[in-house]
Amino acid sequence: MICLGIESTAHTFGAGIVDSEGKVLANVIRSFSTEEGGMIPVKVAEHHIKVVDEAIMTALDDAKVALKDIDLVSFSQGPGMGHCLRIGAMAARSLAVLHGKPLVGVNHCIAHLEIGGAVTQAKDPVLLYASGANTQIIAYDGGRYRIFGETLDMGVGNFLDSFARHVGLGFPGGPKVAALAEKGEKLIPLPYVVKGMDVSFGGILTNIKQKHDSGRFGLEDLCYSVQETVFAMLTEVAERAMAHCGKDELVLGGGVACNNRLKEMARIMCEDRGARCFVPENRLLVDNAAMIAWLGIVEHQAGVSTNVAEASIRPYERTDDVEVTWR
Ligand code: ATP
Ligand code: FE2
């Protein structure tokens, strides 16, 4: 069985094709970016509309299949930005109806987790999901993926992007902050905000903007310090979730997990407690449709299907809203 997945929750429009063994046959990623300023939802949606056809055709070409060979269509139903989600949902519904294929709408956050199971040896991991809009520590327990800890305000990626935008680095800011951080040497004390199992970035953002604007600190040192601080916060709550759940596997997901320093901290933490750390390749960490296609297959095989009439978007769907019937 092969599935065509479509992703459009935020800045990325993706078309991915995966088979039932978890083999990624195509993973086309078309991302909106700017040199200066952030992302405006209407502009991002315009970007997605422009790339829809090309992304899907390229995915079919890459996988060397035709639409008639596709057995299943899946798409990100939520959570995400309404403007963007609508484009992917429309494309998926149209393909399913026109070509008579079954349709499965999936949860984007759970897709980040499940793809880890397909491409690594993780069996029952804790997921540290660190992306733009989301920052959650997730693990399976009693029929659902539960959120053991999360951000109380913005996602860690949006936090890095906001800081980068403030200092004139453009979007996405995470990779730019990462490059400058490598040249930083001095650890500047910043607020460290872990509340129970949750984290918060708003106060750190205000503080680091003030430090930057004071002109008393070098940008490279600020980038270095911000990474050391917020990644330590994430590693701390991930470790506590592993201890609490008695799980000895960690999977990283989300675009911020592309960061080498975060990967390093996660690996050291796992080594220290005799656990295993799994990091899928970067193209499967960022928003992508291969993970959407894979979750489509997993759910379809468990008997899940989405009626076209009920395939509306779910911008606010939470990870633990979804009943997990496929485990
Ligand atoms: P979601 O919809 O799941 O919240 P998202 O739409 O923000 O995710 P992702 O592709 O998962 O998309 O993540 C994008 C984020 O990852 C951006 O905030 C970007 O700055 C950040 N990012 C990408 N590469 C790096 C890196 N090397 N270091 C730090 N952050 C990074
Ligand atoms: Fe994502």
What does the model show?
With 327 residues, this protein is an alpha/beta fold. The protein has ten helices and twelve strands. The chain has helices at residues 41-63, 82-99, 108-119, 156-166, 174-181, 202-214, 219-245, 260-272, 282-285, 290-301, and strands at residues 2-7, 12-19, 24-31, 72-78, 103-107, 126-130, 135-141, 144-150, 194-195, 198-199, 249-253, 276-278. The strands form three sheets. Strands 3-2-1-4-5 form a five-stranded mixed sheet, with helices on both faces. It has a five-stranded mixed sheet with strand order 8-7-6-11-12, sandwiched between helices. The chain has a two-stranded antiparallel ribbon with strand order 9-10. A hairpin with a 2-residue loop joins strand 7 (135-141) and strand 8. Helix 3 (108-119) packs across helix 10 (290-301), helix 5 (174-181) crosses helix 7 (219-245) and helix 7 (219-245) runs parallel beside helix 8 (260-272). The longest helix has 27 residues, at 219-245. The radius of gyration is 19 Å and the shape is globular. The two termini are 19 Å apart. Fe (ii) ion binds at residues 108, 112, 131, 254, 287.
